[in-house]
Amino acid sequence: MRDLPPTPESAPPEVNGVSREAAEDAVRTLLRWSGEDPAREGLLDTPGRVARAYRDWFSGYREEPREYLARTFKEVAGYDELIVLRDIEFESHCEHHMAPIIGKAHVGYLPDGKVVGISKLARVVDAYARRFQVQEKMTAQIADCIADVLQPRGVGVVVVATHECMTTRGVHKRGVSMVTSKMLGSFREDARTRAEFLQFIDVGPGR
Description:
Layout: E1 14-15, E2 18-19, H1 20-33, H2 46-57, H3 65-68, E3 72-73, E4 83-94, E5 100-110, E6 115-116, H4 118-129, E7 132-133, H5 135-150, E8 154-163, H6 164-167, E9 178-185, H7 186-189, H8 191-200
Parallel strand pairs: 4-7
Antiparallel strand pairs: 1-2, 3-6, 4-5, 5-8, 8-9
Helix pairs in contact: 1-2, 4-5
């Protein structure tokens, strides 16, 4: 496992060919475009704060999710039933409007001789969430990553989230959540396995 990404406070002066000064100037441009004065006292430090926030919000670009699943355990007394980690809270951003996506992910898999530490599943979710995202794509990325690295008999991922791009702009519909799922292997082929997973996470018909 490589070192964790640097914190926003230790962000380098240049990232991906863009200097910190250029990033902060971009924020000042948006402030002016919105009708504000970047030189106003209350906004003087805003460009720097936004640049540091972006290093935090989008730290997923500096992570390789598959590395989190590299260390597995085989001494599990032959356990081969469902493993489910539910209610993994995440914060992401919509790639269309750069608005927040706030939600929870539920992850399950049927092991085939090896398991992974449960905290690593949460790290995989965060690594993909901390990028500009489309919820459908993020759901598939999480499931595919677990399937590719762990090679389990099946994987199920359900994501439930609210999108600020439709609650704070556009149609302005609050209290609306979006649900996406990706089922692979036995989760897709066996209705009983899928139903058991949905029961574990309390999602499904009549619930």
